[in-house]
């Protein structure tokens, strides 16, 4: 099974080599790595030239969701994963993922654990594989970073393109649709590290409000019968 690793990038020269090396160092070698760069002005493109196996383009885009859509269209793998330029995979993550998919060919998405790392803390995130859990965003049970979940190509084909006007909670938009429609399983393995240096988008925006709006919009459009459940749980959590 071929894995497509898709990396959106913009001015990522300070850390993209770490992300690339975390892919190269995997024991599982049937993969392609695609980087879609938004026209970086730093040394990102110089770094990419050091790795001829990477398929890349660099051109202005409309934000991260646009770059993610472009990368997906360039990909050919049976299994998809997004690796942000400032994050990295754990050793042997690919082997663990492929083993999980091969153990049950009805599985569409495999979710693992995640290291959240900042200058002041190191936490292990243990996300859920249940739709009703990730809907309740304040419990922090949704996969916090795409490095911690891999899925079959048909998932993104059927969910559709990431909305390019959503620059902050596109991951939750995708997860809600995927969890509702497809078979998701959880493995008790750490798949990657989410590096938070205090300047990531997720560190500087009103994340809770964006997640709330994304979940609310999803329910109104795709699952209106769960609106009461969502607001009841939200009320009880206050």
Enumerate the spans where pLDDT stays under 50 for 5 or more consecutive residues. Answer: none
Shape: globular
Number of strands: 9
Helix content: 25-40%
CA radius of gyration is 17 Å
Q: Supply the number of helical segments.
A: 10
Largest sheet composition: 9 strands, mixed
Strand content: 15-25%
- The first-to-last residue Cα distance is 45 Å
Rounded average pLDDT: 94
- Helix/strand class: alpha/beta
Query: What letter string, H or E per element, gives the SSE order?
Result: EHEHEHEEHEEHEHHEHHH
Provide keyphrases for this structure.
alpha/beta, 9 strands, 238 residues, nine-stranded mixed sheet
Structure characterization notes:
By secondary structure, the protein is of the alpha/beta class. 38% of the residues lie in helices and 22% in strands. It has helices spanning 16-24, 44-48, 64-74, 93-103, 131-135, 153-159, 170-181, 201-204, 207-222, 227-237, and strands spanning 3-9, 31-37, 55-58, 79-82, 88-89, 109-117, 122-125, 149-152, 184-195. Strands 1, 2, 3, 4, 5, 6, 7, 8 and 9 form a 9-stranded mixed β-sheet that branches. Helix 2 (44-48) links the parallel strand 2 (31-37) and strand 3 (55-58). The model has no long low-confidence stretch (mean pLDDT 94).
What is the element layout, followed by pairings?
Elements: E1 3-9, H1 16-24, E2 31-37, H2 44-48, E3 55-58, H3 64-74, E4 79-82, E5 88-89, H4 93-103, E6 109-117, E7 122-125, H5 131-135, E8 149-152, H6 153-159, H7 170-181, E9 184-195, H8 201-204, H9 207-222, H10 227-237
Parallel strand pairs: 1-2, 1-4, 2-3, 6-9
Antiparallel strand pairs: 4-8, 5-9, 6-7, 6-8
Helix pairs in contact: 7-9
């Amino acid at each position: 099974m071929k894995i497509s690793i898709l990396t959106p990038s913009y001015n990522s020269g300070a850390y993209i080599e770490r992300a690339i090396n975390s892919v190269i160092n995997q024991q599982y070698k049937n993969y392609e790595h695609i980087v879609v760069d938004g026209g970086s002005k730093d040394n990102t493109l110089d770094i990419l030239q050091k790795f001829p196996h990477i398929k890349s383009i660099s051109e202005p885009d409309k934000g991260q969701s646009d770059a993610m859509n472009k990368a997906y269209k360039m990909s050919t793998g049976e299994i998809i994963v997004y690796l942000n330029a400032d994050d990295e995979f754990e050793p042997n993550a690919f082997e663990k993922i492929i083993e999980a998919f091969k153990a049950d060919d009805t599985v569409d998405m495999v979710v693992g654990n995640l290291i959240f790392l900042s200058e002041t803390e190191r936490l292990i995130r243990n996300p859920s594989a249940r739709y009703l859990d990730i809907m309740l965003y304040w419990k922090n049970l949704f996969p916090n970073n795409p490095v911690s979940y891999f899925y079959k190509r048909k998932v993104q084909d059927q969910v559709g393109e990431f909305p390019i006007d959503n620059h902050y909670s596109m991951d939750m938009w995708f997860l809600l649709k995927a969890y509702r429609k497809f078979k998701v399983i959880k493995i008790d393995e750490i798949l990657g590290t989410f590096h938070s240096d205090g300047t990531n988008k997720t560190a500087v925006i009103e994340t809770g409000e964006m997640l709330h709006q994304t979940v609310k919009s999803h329910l109104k459009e795709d699952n209106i019968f769960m609106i009461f459940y969502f607001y009841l749980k939200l009320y009880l959590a206050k």
